[in-house]
Protein backbone atom coordinates (compact mmCIF):
# COMPACT_ATOMS: atom_id res chain seq x y z
CA UNK A 1 0.00 0.00 0.00
CA UNK A 2 1.36 3.42 -0.95
CA UNK A 3 0.18 6.38 1.16
CA UNK A 4 0.90 10.11 0.89
CA UNK A 5 -0.63 11.07 4.27
CA UNK A 6 1.56 9.05 6.57
CA UNK A 7 4.82 7.29 5.83
CA UNK A 8 5.33 4.67 8.53
CA UNK A 9 8.78 3.78 7.27
CA UNK A 10 9.84 7.41 7.37
CA UNK A 11 8.53 7.89 10.91
CA UNK A 12 10.28 4.73 12.06
CA UNK A 13 13.56 5.86 10.51
CA UNK A 14 13.25 9.31 12.14
CA UNK A 15 12.53 7.80 15.57
CA UNK A 16 15.43 5.36 15.33
CA UNK A 17 17.79 8.11 14.17
CA UNK A 18 16.69 10.41 17.00
CA UNK A 19 17.27 7.67 19.57
CA UNK A 20 20.70 6.90 18.14
CA UNK A 21 21.72 10.55 18.20
CA UNK A 22 20.61 10.88 21.84
CA UNK A 23 22.64 7.80 22.78
CA UNK A 24 25.62 9.10 20.84
CA UNK A 25 25.48 12.46 22.64
CA UNK A 26 25.32 10.69 26.01
CA UNK A 27 28.30 8.54 25.08
CA UNK A 28 30.30 11.58 23.97
CA UNK A 29 29.52 13.28 27.28
CA UNK A 30 30.76 10.23 29.17
CA UNK A 31 33.99 10.26 27.18
CA UNK A 32 34.53 13.99 27.72
CA UNK A 33 33.94 13.81 31.49
CA UNK A 34 35.25 10.32 32.13
CA UNK A 35 32.09 9.62 34.11
CA UNK A 36 29.29 7.23 33.26
CA UNK A 37 27.00 9.08 35.70
CA UNK A 38 26.73 12.77 34.84
CA UNK A 39 23.22 13.45 36.12
CA UNK A 40 20.49 11.83 38.15
CA UNK A 41 18.80 10.67 34.96
CA UNK A 42 21.80 8.49 34.14
CA UNK A 43 21.60 6.46 37.36
CA UNK A 44 19.86 7.99 40.37
CA UNK A 45 20.87 5.26 42.81
CA UNK A 46 24.44 5.22 41.54
CA UNK A 47 24.67 9.00 41.84
CA UNK A 48 23.48 8.82 45.45
CA UNK A 49 26.07 6.16 46.30
CA UNK A 50 28.89 8.05 44.58
CA UNK A 51 27.96 11.29 46.38
CA UNK A 52 27.91 9.55 49.77
CA UNK A 53 31.28 7.98 49.08
CA UNK A 54 32.61 11.38 48.02
CA UNK A 55 31.53 12.86 51.35
CA UNK A 56 33.28 10.04 53.22
CA UNK A 57 36.44 10.58 51.20
CA UNK A 58 36.45 14.35 51.83
CA UNK A 59 35.99 13.89 55.58
CA UNK A 60 38.70 11.25 55.83
CA UNK A 61 41.13 13.27 53.72
CA UNK A 62 40.74 16.31 55.95
CA UNK A 63 40.89 14.12 59.07
CA UNK A 64 44.22 12.75 57.88
CA UNK A 65 45.44 16.33 57.43
CA UNK A 66 44.17 17.26 60.91
CA UNK A 67 46.06 14.36 62.46
CA UNK A 68 49.19 15.13 60.43
CA UNK A 69 49.12 18.75 61.64
CA UNK A 70 48.80 17.57 65.25
CA UNK A 71 51.70 15.19 64.77
CA UNK A 72 53.81 18.11 63.58
CA UNK A 73 52.71 20.13 66.64
CA UNK A 74 53.62 17.33 69.04
CA UNK A 75 56.91 16.58 67.33
CA UNK A 76 57.81 20.26 67.71
CA UNK A 77 57.05 19.98 71.42
CA UNK A 78 59.14 16.83 71.72
CA UNK A 79 62.07 18.46 69.93
CA UNK A 80 61.93 21.41 72.31
CA UNK A 81 61.76 19.12 75.33
CA UNK A 82 64.77 17.25 74.01
CA UNK A 83 66.71 20.51 74.21
CA UNK A 84 65.37 21.07 77.74
CA UNK A 85 66.66 17.63 78.73
CA UNK A 86 70.09 18.55 77.38
CA UNK A 87 70.03 21.75 79.42
CA UNK A 88 68.94 19.90 82.54
CA UNK A 89 71.70 17.35 82.09
CA UNK A 90 74.17 20.24 82.04
CA UNK A 91 72.53 21.61 85.19
CA UNK A 92 73.06 18.20 86.84
CA UNK A 93 76.76 18.44 86.04
CA UNK A 94 76.96 21.96 87.50
CA UNK A 95 75.06 21.03 90.67
CA UNK A 96 77.11 17.89 91.22
CA UNK A 97 80.32 19.86 90.76
CA UNK A 98 79.17 22.60 93.14
CA UNK A 99 78.04 20.10 95.76
CA UNK A 100 81.54 18.62 95.93
CA UNK A 101 82.80 21.63 97.87
CA UNK A 102 86.08 22.02 96.04
CA UNK A 103 85.19 25.10 94.01
CA UNK A 104 86.44 28.58 94.72
CA UNK A 105 84.06 31.46 95.28
CA UNK A 106 84.61 32.67 91.72
CA UNK A 107 84.00 29.19 90.34
CA UNK A 108 80.75 28.92 92.32
CA UNK A 109 79.70 32.32 91.01
CA UNK A 110 80.38 31.18 87.45
CA UNK A 111 78.45 27.94 88.03
CA UNK A 112 75.51 29.93 89.45
CA UNK A 113 75.58 32.25 86.44
CA UNK A 114 75.48 29.33 84.01
CA UNK A 115 72.72 27.68 86.04
CA UNK A 116 70.69 30.89 85.90
CA UNK A 117 71.22 31.05 82.13
CA UNK A 118 69.93 27.46 81.85
CA UNK A 119 66.81 28.38 83.81
CA UNK A 120 66.18 31.40 81.60
CA UNK A 121 66.71 29.35 78.45
CA UNK A 122 64.21 26.72 79.59
CA UNK A 123 61.62 29.41 80.32
CA UNK A 124 62.28 31.03 76.95
CA UNK A 125 61.84 27.71 75.14
CA UNK A 126 58.52 27.29 76.90
CA UNK A 127 57.27 30.75 75.93
CA UNK A 128 58.58 31.04 72.37
CA UNK A 129 58.21 27.57 70.86
CA UNK A 130 55.31 27.68 68.40
CA UNK A 131 53.78 25.69 65.57
CA UNK A 132 51.83 27.41 62.81
CA UNK A 133 51.48 30.51 64.95
CA UNK A 134 50.22 28.65 68.04
CA UNK A 135 52.15 28.39 71.28
CA UNK A 136 53.21 24.80 71.78
CA UNK A 137 53.49 24.73 75.57
CA UNK A 138 50.19 25.68 77.10
CA UNK A 139 47.68 24.48 79.66
CA UNK A 140 45.07 24.35 76.89
CA UNK A 141 44.49 20.98 75.27
CA UNK A 142 45.32 20.29 71.63
CA UNK A 143 42.14 18.75 70.23
CA UNK A 144 42.52 16.63 67.11
CA UNK A 145 39.17 16.01 65.41
CA UNK A 146 38.82 13.14 62.96
CA UNK A 147 35.73 11.85 61.16
CA UNK A 148 34.67 9.55 58.35
CA UNK A 149 31.73 11.79 57.54
CA UNK A 150 29.14 9.73 59.43
CA UNK A 151 27.24 10.60 62.59
CA UNK A 152 29.02 7.91 64.62
CA UNK A 153 32.46 8.12 63.02
CA UNK A 154 33.83 11.21 64.79
CA UNK A 155 36.49 11.19 67.51
CA UNK A 156 38.52 13.84 69.30
CA UNK A 157 41.94 13.23 70.82
CA UNK A 158 42.93 15.76 73.48
CA UNK A 159 46.64 16.21 74.22
CA UNK A 160 48.11 18.64 76.74
CA UNK A 161 51.77 19.59 76.60
CA UNK A 162 51.48 21.83 79.67
CA UNK A 163 53.19 25.11 80.50
CA UNK A 164 56.97 24.90 80.36
CA UNK A 165 59.17 27.08 82.56
CA UNK A 166 61.96 26.75 85.06
CA UNK A 167 59.57 27.67 87.85
CA UNK A 168 57.06 25.11 86.60
CA UNK A 169 59.76 22.45 86.78
CA UNK A 170 60.54 23.63 90.33
CA UNK A 171 64.19 24.41 89.67
CA UNK A 172 66.05 27.55 90.65
CA UNK A 173 64.57 27.96 94.14
CA UNK A 174 68.12 28.20 95.49
CA UNK A 175 71.65 28.76 94.26
CA UNK A 176 74.40 26.27 93.63
CA UNK A 177 76.66 28.23 95.97
CA UNK A 178 74.40 27.64 98.96
CA UNK A 179 72.15 24.66 98.14
CA UNK A 180 73.74 22.58 95.40
CA UNK A 181 72.48 19.27 96.78
CA UNK A 182 68.91 20.56 97.07
CA UNK A 183 69.04 21.91 93.51
CA UNK A 184 70.44 18.62 92.26
CA UNK A 185 67.43 16.80 93.67
CA UNK A 186 65.08 19.34 92.03
CA UNK A 187 66.89 19.08 88.68
CA UNK A 188 66.70 15.27 88.74
CA UNK A 189 62.95 15.49 89.44
CA UNK A 190 62.59 17.97 86.57
CA UNK A 191 64.31 15.53 84.21
CA UNK A 192 61.81 12.85 85.25
CA UNK A 193 58.93 15.26 84.63
CA UNK A 194 60.18 16.15 81.16
CA UNK A 195 60.75 12.48 80.34
CA UNK A 196 57.20 11.65 81.42
CA UNK A 197 55.79 14.43 79.23
CA UNK A 198 57.85 13.25 76.26
CA UNK A 199 56.57 9.72 76.78
CA UNK A 200 52.96 10.92 76.77
CA UNK A 201 53.61 12.98 73.64
CA UNK A 202 55.24 9.98 71.97
CA UNK A 203 52.22 7.83 72.73
CA UNK A 204 49.88 10.40 71.21
CA UNK A 205 52.10 10.74 68.13
CA UNK A 206 52.00 6.96 67.65
CA UNK A 207 48.23 6.92 67.98
CA UNK A 208 47.79 9.79 65.53
CA UNK A 209 50.20 8.15 63.09
CA UNK A 210 48.14 4.97 63.23
CA UNK A 211 44.99 7.04 62.63
CA UNK A 212 46.57 8.66 59.56
CA UNK A 213 47.51 5.24 58.16
CA UNK A 214 43.98 3.92 58.67
CA UNK A 215 42.40 7.02 57.17
CA UNK A 216 44.65 6.94 54.12
CA UNK A 217 43.81 3.27 53.58
CA UNK A 218 40.10 4.04 53.85
CA UNK A 219 40.44 6.88 51.35
CA UNK A 220 42.14 4.53 48.90
CA UNK A 221 39.45 1.86 49.27
CA UNK A 222 36.54 4.30 49.10
CA UNK A 223 38.02 6.06 46.07
CA UNK A 224 38.26 2.70 44.33
CA UNK A 225 34.62 1.97 45.19
CA UNK A 226 33.53 5.41 43.98
CA UNK A 227 35.42 4.92 40.74
CA UNK A 228 33.65 1.62 40.16
CA UNK A 229 30.27 3.30 40.63
CA UNK A 230 30.68 6.52 38.64
CA UNK A 231 33.66 6.28 36.31
CA UNK A 232 33.16 5.34 32.70
CA UNK A 233 34.76 2.25 31.20
CA UNK A 234 36.60 4.06 28.43
CA UNK A 235 37.17 1.04 26.19
CA UNK A 236 33.51 -0.01 26.43
CA UNK A 237 32.33 3.58 25.92
CA UNK A 238 34.50 4.00 22.83
CA UNK A 239 33.02 0.77 21.45
CA UNK A 240 29.53 2.17 22.05
CA UNK A 241 30.46 5.42 20.32
CA UNK A 242 31.64 3.48 17.30
CA UNK A 243 28.40 1.49 17.31
CA UNK A 244 26.25 4.62 17.52
CA UNK A 245 28.24 6.32 14.78
CA UNK A 246 27.54 3.37 12.48
CA UNK A 247 23.87 3.33 13.50
CA UNK A 248 23.65 7.07 12.86
CA UNK A 249 25.02 6.65 9.35
CA UNK A 250 22.74 3.71 8.57
CA UNK A 251 19.80 5.54 10.08
CA UNK A 252 20.39 8.56 7.88
CA UNK A 253 20.69 6.26 4.89
CA UNK A 254 17.42 4.56 5.83
CA UNK A 255 15.71 7.93 6.22
CA UNK A 256 17.01 8.97 2.81
CA UNK A 257 15.63 5.76 1.26
CA UNK A 258 12.28 6.38 2.96
CA UNK A 259 12.16 9.88 1.50
CA UNK A 260 12.91 8.50 -1.93
CA UNK A 261 10.05 5.99 -1.56
CA UNK A 262 7.69 8.88 -0.82
CA UNK A 263 8.88 10.70 -3.92
CA UNK A 264 7.90 7.67 -6.03
CA UNK A 265 4.25 8.57 -5.44
CA UNK A 266 4.74 11.67 -7.60
CA UNK A 267 5.85 9.53 -10.51
CA UNK A 268 2.43 7.86 -10.50
CA UNK A 269 0.91 11.23 -11.34
CA UNK A 270 3.15 11.91 -14.31
**Rounded Rg:** 39 Å
Number of domains: 2
Largest sheet: 2 strands, antiparallel
The poorly predicted ranges are: none
Oligomer category: single chain
> What gross morphology would you assign?
rod-shaped
CATH class of the largest domain, named: Mainly Alpha
- End-to-end separation: 19 Å
Name the CATH homologous superfamily of the largest domain.
Answer: f41 fragment of flagellin, N-terminal domain
Indicate the CATH topology of the largest domain: f41 fragment of flagellin, N-terminal domain
Number of DSSP strands? Answer: 4
Q: Which architecture of the largest domain would the CATH scheme give at its second level?
A: Up-down Bundle
Taken as a percent bin, the fraction of beta residues is: 5-15%
SSE order and pairing:
Blueprint: H1 8-33, H2 44-99, H3 105-128, E1 130-131, E2 134-135, E3 142-147, E4 154-159, H4 176-230, H5 234-268
Antiparallel strand pairs: 1-2, 3-4
Helix pairs in contact: 1-5, 2-3, 2-4
Amino acid sequence: MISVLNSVSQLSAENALSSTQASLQKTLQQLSTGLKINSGSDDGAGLSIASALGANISALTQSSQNATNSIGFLQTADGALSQVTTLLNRAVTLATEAANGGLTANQLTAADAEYTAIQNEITQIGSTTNFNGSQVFSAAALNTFTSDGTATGATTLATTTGVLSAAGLAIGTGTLATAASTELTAITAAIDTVSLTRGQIGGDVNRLTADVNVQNTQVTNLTSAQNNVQNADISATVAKMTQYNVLQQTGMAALSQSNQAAQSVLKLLQ
